[in-house]
Amino acid sequence: MFYLVYFAIIVLIPLWAQLKVKSTFARYSQVPSATYRTGADVAREILNANGLYNVGIEQGHGFLSDHYDPRTKTVRLSPENYHGHSLAAAAVAAHECGHAVQDSQGYAFLRFRHALVPVANIGSNFSWVLIMIGIFAHLSGMLLLGIIFMAAAVLFQLITLPVEFDASSRAMKQVVSLGLIRNDEAKKTRKVLNAAALTYVAAAAVAVLELLRLVLIYTGMTRNNDD
C-alpha cells in the first residue's frame, strides 16, 4: 500500500505541475499585453537596459522550449513567445533574460549550478545502474555508491530552485520598471511565472523523495546484513 501511494505521488506531482503550466500559459497567451510588444521585443529591451547588448535573441523550436544559453550568450524563445504579443510571451521572455542578467553579474547559485552540470549528468545517467545492481545483487556498497551519484543529481535540482525563483523576481521587476506591462497586468504576469516555477519545485520534490526511499532501502539492507 505504501509503495502504491508513493508511486502515485511521484507520478501525480509532476503531472499536475505540467498541466498547471500548460493551462496557465494557454490562458495568458490569449491575453495581449497593453504595450503589445512581442516576446523578442521585451527580451531586447530588458537586455539593453542591463547593458547586455552582446546577448543575442533567437527563435527556438518546439513548445515552451525557451531557455538562456550561457555558452553562446543567447536567449532562445519558442516561436509562440518570440512572435507573441501576450502577457505569457512577455513573462517567459523576461524570465530568460533574468538568467542572462544572473550570468552577467556572476550570480552565485547560477555559477554553482553550472559547475555541477558534469557531475549531475554522470549522477543521473550512471546512478541507476549502480542502484539496480546493488538492490538485486544485495550489494550494499554498490547501492551506497549509486545513492551518492544520485545525490549529486538531486543537489543540482535543489540548486536550480533559487536560480529560477531569482530569475522570475528579476523578470517582474524589469517588466514593471521598464513599462513593458501595466501595473494592473502584474498579477497575471506573475501567475505565468509562478506556474512555470512549479515544474522545478515538483521535480525537486520527486527527486528528494526518491533519494530518501533509496536511503531507507540501503539502511534496511545494511541492517539485514548485520543480522
From TrEMBL:
The keyword Transmembrane helix belongs to this UniProt entry's keyword annotation: yes
InterPro entries hit by this protein: Zn_peptidase_2 (IPR007395)
Keyword annotations of the record: Membrane, Transmembrane, Transmembrane helix
Name of the protein this chain belongs to: Zinc metallopeptidase
Spans through the membrane: 6-21, 115-137, 143-163, 192-218
Organism whose genome encodes this protein: Bacillus salipaludis
UniProt entry tagged with the keyword Membrane: yes
